[in-house]
Each structure stands twice: as structure tokens, then as C-alpha cells.
Write a structure and sequence with these properties.
heterodimer; A: alpha/beta; Rossmann fold; 8-stranded mixed beta sheet; globular; B: alpha+beta; FAD/NAD(P)-binding domain; 7-stranded mixed beta sheet; 6-stranded antiparallel beta sheet; 11 helices
């Protein structure tokens, strides 16, 4: 994308979200970080390039708050050119030990939250025929470990959400509105003690945001390559032959 | 999306309905909605099946089409298309082919391009006889433009028409919604048209342009964004105003007692059923409505209802549409709305009526080139050797590269009514009717004239005319139950009631005494609103009351 101005990053108060805000703001983007915790957002602001970072308290699980939040952002900063849907929680707990409310809240933030944000930005992107959505996902759904049922279920849902949104956006008519998933892999954040530093995710995120019109959509990327789930032999052959 | 089966009804034949509408297309949907809104009990009888824009993957990829057999009637019907061949007799030859027509809820409008343009003032007046010969039928309307303008305004509001006013029509006071901005290529075309004196404007379309809209040209709209007979007429009539629908219901004939229609006889999945109504509206389209009249024979009507003067089914008109690819657009981006530009600069030149010129809503992509090759092949070797799909596909892929996404435009050239052009019932034909049509010499001349004008004016754009001699627009059948004041030259009264009957109306494209030079949809909607109001007033006066 050539002239991105405004990028909204959800879950900007910590971890990967904060690292993306730092990277994008120092590369000249105007970044609007959202999150539930004011103090965490203020802390992110201290790390970001001055004048290029703004923050807004917003709970992505609350559809009305998201709609109001994005309309306030657009009023203040102009159209949202790109969305990085990053907000997520990971509450460790066995399925039978979690209350229904606790379990559901995780789905609400991780999956419904992403959908809420897409709903807020997509109409404008389609009207302007220009926009990027990067959804930060995970492969936790493939082989869930104990005590991760809600997290795994929500991340599995995101794969489908990304593909489904891309399938509803006509490629020929809207070649410059691209929706993709970024799987950062194990990253040292509040969620994980192992893995690379959150800053290591930034180059891949930047690459996806700067994909030119007509680029990939509805696909999933790791930091260094594309991930193709459930690709059968026939589909693989077809891709190799047609070089898609 | 509405699920049509929710409004289907058992035992519709036991009730006495206020109004039975035969055909749930654009005219039927709109007039039915108008009457249902007034609290009348309305039953729609639709020959087509339940369409499902969400259930059927509508667009097949280029290579899928190359490698697979044809869709087959069931799939075509689910996609809202006319499922079977129609039979056309021209120049002593009979040909069966799949027409560009719709079937099912919404009729042809469900898959149309949504052009909703007004006729012009001159269309309501009689044209100078341009060497039309003794079989020409009169082409004047029983009222003038000013009397009809309010119905155009109402139709435009109902269909939410977007576009910009036609700069060379002083009568165009349409209140239009703002269309989305043009692509770079269309901006260039607009400027070039303007410099060439075409007086371009944004074509009037019934598209809401919801976020992500692809305009659904030639396809069912899965989101209710396209304004057509089902989304704007039939669906609200069923969902909000208590109307009911019988699908797969082929109306055969009407039974009369004197001048009053008593029963509607139909076949529903092979079973014969009779429906009773105080008032019957035929809206089965200009190809089917006249045949229902012709088959309704009685002692009083030996030649069929309304056919005392042998006019039912006659005066059939199609527009002539030449497809034109504009090749020299400098490789500019075509990303943007597809059905965008129109011109009526050649609507009438030196007293000769040509018609309009407009975006088709597509590009010269390989699918269109392939279609063009297939048609050429079939024309060259009629019925002899099936086209070699793969070879033609490959050729089309190369051809499309050479054409470079050239935008497609089409002409809409007015056709005048003739006694010899007609549709007749024929039980042996695949769709139960045969079109007997000959192009008059004066039509050929006007088509050539329009081509010459466009070639000259648009030469900087390197126009390439795709259609050859067979360029009749079978999607625009009109005029088979003409309206007018005199029963000797018309089938319907100016109120669209069949002359000599008490309770039978025809409200579809059949009533046009002349075809005009634009797509007929808006005029069908406007007329359905007009007639709907007249019928509602007559009901309020107790004109159609009867004992059940």
C-alpha cells in the first residue's frame, strides 16, 4: 500500500501490539492504538515516535463501543487506511474449570472483537477501494494443549473469518482491499515466556500492510513465509503449475 | 434474502382473492405490492421456481466453463434464468436457443443490469412514418409525457435510482442518488464522449451500491442491493403486506362468464388447479401474457380474450443492441463501478429515431471473447459441429490479452411495431410459444445509421463492433398487448384493462405501443404504479365486489 496514513492497532498496550505501534510510528505512519487499559496505552505512547502515536480506550468485545470508537477516530484523524486486529487474551484454564462467562469473554475479545473491528472499517475501505486488514492469529487451534480451549477455538475461528471476508470481497472489483492473517509464532509477551521478541514480528506486519494492490488476500502468513492449511495434493499441484 | 417458500400457500384455490397476479416479475411485483399495500388480498402465481442466489455458486470460472457441460435447466432456473430454449422463426428458419431472459421471482429484472431510464417526450408522440409500409402499427401513446412524468418520479423513488441527469433532455428532472466515483478509464471515456459531442451522463441505475457491491450484472443479487421486481416488489408484498405466492404455477388460460374473468386455470407440478379472484392481472411478460389471452377461448371470445381484432401477440418489438468494445483507453485502471455511462445524443437525429448508447457493465474479458467466438462458430456451422471448447477458450484468452480489458458498451436502437411481428402459442415449442419476427428494412437502416454515427464520433477510442446481423435484444420483448383508446388498434385501454372485459388487466412490458430507445424497466415500473393506483381506486369504489 503506497500512502498509508492511518493505522489502527488494537491491543496496543502491551506485547506485539505495542511493538507494532513503535515500529509503525517510527516509520512515519500515524498510529492509533486502542486497548482497555489507559495506563498501558500511555506507556506505549512513551515508546513511540512523537506526534505519530495516538491512543484511545476501547473494548473490542463491545460492538457499540467499537462502532463509536472508530467513528471518533475517523472524525479526528480521517479514514482508517489499515487495521491491525491484534487484541487477544489467553486465560489458561481447563474447560470444565472455567465459568461460561469467563470462557465466552475470551471468544468475545479474540474472535468477535476482530469481527467488530472489521465491520467498522470495511465499508469505508470498500467505498474508497483501498484498505488493508491484518489479523494477528495463531495456530493454537491445530493441536490444542490442555487449558487452552477458548483461546484455540477463537484462533481457529479467525482463520475462517479471514478467508470468509476475503471471499466476499470481489478480487477484480476491489483489488486494493486486502484481508490477511499474520501468525507471529511463539513470541515473548504476557502470554508466553518462550519465543522471539515482539519486535521481531514488525517486519512481517509491515510487509503485509505495504502489499501492493492485487496482492494476496484471504491468506495466512508466518514471519517469513505463507502458511497453507488443509491444502490437498490437487490444490498444491494446481498452485505450483499455475504459479499462484 | 427472502425464503420464498415461507410465503407459499396450500389451498390458495379454495379462497376468493381480491387480486390474482399472473407472473411475479417487475410489472407484477410492483402492481401486486401497490395493491397489497391498500389492504387487498393478493395472490401471485409464478411459473418459475424458487431461485436461490445464496444456494447456487453463480459464477463459474473461465476454465470451469471450458471443461464442463452446460448448466442444465434446473441450475439455470435456480440462477433465475429462463430454463429452456425459446423458439424463434425468422427468414423462414426456425431456431431454438437459450435467451437472455429471467424466470422466477423478479422475472428478467432479477438478473438484469438495472438500467432504469426514462423514455423521452417524443416517445409518447407518434413518430413520422419513416418508410414503414402498410403493416406498420400506430406507435403513439394514449397520453403525453407530462401526464406520465409523476409516475416516473414515483418509480425512481421506489427503485432508489442513482445517476446524473441527461444533459440533452430538458424534461429529465429525475431526482437521483449520487453514484460512486468513476474509474480512471471511465473518467477518460466520459471526457472523450463529451469532446465527441455525445453529451454523456451517469446512466440511471437501480443499484444501492452497498459496501462491496459488484452490481450483479446478469446475476441474481444475493444482498437485496439491486432494485428489481423481487427485492422491491414481490418480497415486501409478501413479507409486509400479507400477499401470498404459488411457485411452479403455469397459468394456461382464463375462464370467463361473459365479460368477467371467473377463474384462472393453471398447472402446478402437473396438477390442474383453478384460482378465483375478483380481479386478474396478467404480468407474465410480453411473450407469455398474450398467449394466455389467446388460449382463453369462449363463446364470446372465439379468437381468445381481447382478440376480436387479431392484435393479441402482434406488434412484438425488441430493441436492437450492438455490442461495442472501446479498445483505445490507454491502459487506464478500470477499477470502479461497471455500469456507468450513457448517451442519448443520437436519440433523434434529423427526424430519425435511433436510440441510446450505454455501458454494458463489463469488460472485454476472456469470457466475453469466448462467448463471441462460440456464437460466430455456431452461426457459421449451425447445429453441425459443436464448438471446440478448449481451442476457443485458448483463442479467447489470447484475444482478451490483445483487447486489454476494453470496456463494453451497447446501443439500444428503437424497434417500431409491425402487424407481422408476433408471438404465438405453440405446444410443440420448448417454452410453449414461438416468436415470429422479421427485421424491417427501415430498422436495418437505422441500425446501420447508428453504427456509422458511433464509428465516426468515437474513432479515437477504436470502437470494435462485436455483434453482426443477429443483434436483436431478446431480453426486451415489448408491445404484444398494445394499449390505446381505440379497440381496433389496441388490446388494452389506456388504463391497461383488456378492451371489453370487466376485470382483466395486463401490467408488464406488453402494453408498449412503441419501444422507445432505452431499457424499458423504469417505464414498466412507472406504469405498474399508475395502474395500481387506478385499480385500488376502483376497488375503493366497489367496482370489483362480487359475492363469493
Amino acid at each position: 500500500m503506497s500512502q498509508i496514513c492511518n493505522v489502527v492497532v488494537t491491543g496496543a498496550g502491551s506485547g506485539i501490539g505495542r511493538a507494532l505501534c513503535v515500529g509503525l510510528s517510527s516509520d512515519g505512519y500515524r498510529v492509533i492504538g486502542t486497548g482497555r487499559r489507559r495506563d498501558a496505552l500511555e506507556a506505549t505512547a512513551k515508546h513511540c515516535a512523537e506526534g505519530n502515536f495516538f491512543w484511545r480506550e476501547m473494548d473490542v468485545a463491545d460492538a457499540d463501543a467499537v462502532a463509536a470508537g472508530f467513528s471518533a477516530i475517523e472524525k479526528e484523524h480521517g479514514p482508517v487506511d489499515a487495521l491491525v486486529s491484534n487484541a487477544a487474551i489467553y486465560q489458561r484454564g481447563y474447560f470444565l474449570d472455567m465459568s461460561a462467562q469467563q470462557w465466552t469473554s475470551e471468544i468475545m475479545i479474540n474472535l468477535v472483537g476482530a469481527a467488530n473491528c472489521c465491520r467498522a472499517v470495511l465499508p469505508g475501505m470498500l467505498e474508497r477501494q483501498s484498505g488493508r486488514i491484518v489479523i494477528v492469529g495463531s495456530l493454537a487451534d491445530l493441536n490444542p494443549i490442555p487449558a487452552s480451549s477458548a483461546y484455540s477455538a477463537s484462533k481457529g475461528g479467525l482463520h475462517a473469518l479471514v478467508k470468509a471476508l476475503a471471499s466476499e470481497i470481489d478480487r477484480a472489483r476491489y483489488p486494493n482491499v486486502l484481508v490477511n492473517e499474520l501468525n507471529p509464532g511463539a513470541t515473548r509477551t504476557a502470554m508466553s515466556e518462550a519465543g522471539h521478541a515482539p519486535e521481531a514480528v514488525y517486519p512481517a506486519a509491515k510487509r503485509l500492510l505495504e502489499t501492493p494492490a492485487g496482492g494476496p488476500t484471504g491468506r495466512m502468513f508466518a514471519l517469513d513465509r505463507e502458511i497453507r492449511l488443509n491444502e490437498g495434493l490437487k490444490a498444491r499441484l494446481k498452485r505450483l503449475v499455475l504459479r499462484r | 434474502m427472502i425464503d420464498w417458500s415461507n410465503y407459499a400457500i396450500d389451498g390458495a384455490e379454495d379462497a376468493l382473492w381480491d387480486v390474482v397476479v399472473v407472473g411475479a416479475g417487475l410489472g407484477g411485483g410492483v402492481v401486486g405490492l401497490t395493491l397489497a399495500r391498500q389492504g387487498l388480498k393478493v395472490l401471485f402465481l409464478e411459473q418459475g421456481t424458487a431461485t436461490s442466489p445464496l444456494g447456487v455458486p453463480q459464477r463459474r470460472s473461465f476454465w470451469q466453463r471450458a471443461l464442463r457441460a452446460d448448466d442444465g435447466p434446473e441450475r439455470r432456473a435456480a440462477m433465475g434464468r429462463w430454463p429452456n430454449c425459446i423458439r424463434v422463426a425468422r427468414r423462414g428458419r426456425t431456431r431454438d436457443f437459450l435467451p437472455a431472459m429471467g424466470a422466477g421471482p423478479g422475472g428478467s429484472s432479477a438478473i438484469y443490469g438495472a438500467a432504469l431510464e426514462r423514455l423521452r417526450r417524443i416517445d409518447f408522440e407518434s413518430a413520422a412514418p419513416q418508410g414503414r409500409g402498410p403493416e406498420a402499427l400506430p406507435d403513439g401513446w394514449p397520453f403525453d409525457y407530462d401526464a406520465f412524468a409523476q409516475w416516473y418520479a414515483a418509480a425512481e423513488e421506489m427503485m432508489g435510482v442513482a445517476g446524473t441527469p441527461d444533459p440533452c433532455d430538458p424534461d429529465d428532472d429525475s431526482r437521483l442518488r449520487k453514484p460512486p466515483p468513476l474509474s480512471a478509464c471511465d473518467e477518460y471515456l466520459f471526457r472523450t464522449f463529451d469532446e465527441a459531442g455525445l453529451a454523456p451522463y451517469r446512466i440511471h441505475v437501480g443499484v444501492e451500491y452497498r459496501p462491496g457491491c459488484v452490481e450483479c450484472q446478469g446475476y441474481l443479487c444475493p444482498r437485496g442491493c439491486k432494485a428489481e421486481g423481487a427485492s422491491r416488489g414481490l418480497a415486501p408484498a409478501l413479507a409486509k403486506h400479507g400477499a401470498r405466492l404459488v411457485l411452479n404455477c403455469a397459468v394456461e388460460r382464463l375462464e370467463v362468464a361473459g365479460d368477467r374473468i371467473e377463474r384462472v386455470i393453471a398447472a402446478v407440478r402437473g396438477r390442474q388447479v383453478a384460482y378465483r379472484a375478483k380481479l386478474v392481472i396478467l404480468a407474465a411478460g410480453a411473450l407469455a401474457s398474450p398467449n394466455i389471452l389467446r388460449r382463453s377461448v369462449s363463446e364470446r371470445w372465439p379468437k381468445g380474450l381481447g382478440n376480436d381484432h387479431d392484435l393479441v401477440g402482434r406488434g412484438l418489438m425488441f430493441h436492437v443492441s450492438d455490442f461495442v468494445a472501446l479498445r483505445a483507453t490507454g491502459g487506464l485502471s478500470t477499477v470502479g463501478p461497471a455500469k456507468t455511462l450513457a448517451s442519448k445524443a443520437f436519440y433523434e437525429v434529423d427526424g430519425v429515431r435511433y436510440g441510446s448508447f450505454q455501458s454494458v457493465g463489463g469488460k472485454m474479458a476472456r469470457g466475453n471473447v469466448y462467448q463471441y467466438f462460440v456464437e460466430k462458430w455456431q452461426r457459421a456451422l449451425p447445429g453441425a459441429i459443436p464448438p471446440p471448447r478448449l481451442a476457443l477458450m485458448a483463442a479467447a484468452a489470447v484475444g482478451a490479452k490483445i483487447m486489454g480489458d476494453a470496456p463494453l458498451f451497447a446501443t439500444v436502437v428503437e424497434d417500431f411495431p409491425y402487424f407481422f411481428n408476433r408471438v404465438v402459442p405453440d405446444a410443440a415449442a420448448p417454452s410453449g410459444f414461438v416468436i415470429r419476427y422479421e427485421k424491417s428494412a427501415e430498422l436495418d437502416q437505422r441500425v446501420e445509421g447508428m453504427r456509422a454515427l458511433l464509428k465516426r464520433k468515437l474513432s479515437p477510442l477504436a470502437p470494435w463492433f462485436l455483434s453482426g446481423d443477429d443483434n436483436l435484444n431478446y431480453g426486451h420483448p415489448l408491445g404484444t398487448c398494445r394499449f390505446g383508446a381505440a379497440p381496433e388498434t389496441s388490446v388494452l385501454t389506456p388504463e391497461n384493462k383488456v378492451h371489453g372485459t370487466e376485470n382483466l388487466y395486463v401490467v408488464d412490458g406488453s402494453f408498449f405501443p412503441s419501444s422507445g430507445g432505452v431499457n424499458p424497466s423504469l417505464t414498466i415500473v412507472a406504469n405498474a404504479l399508475r395502474v395500481g393506483k387506478l385499480i385500488a381506486e376502483a376497488f375503493a369504489e366497489g367496482r370489483f365486489s362480487r359475492d363469493s
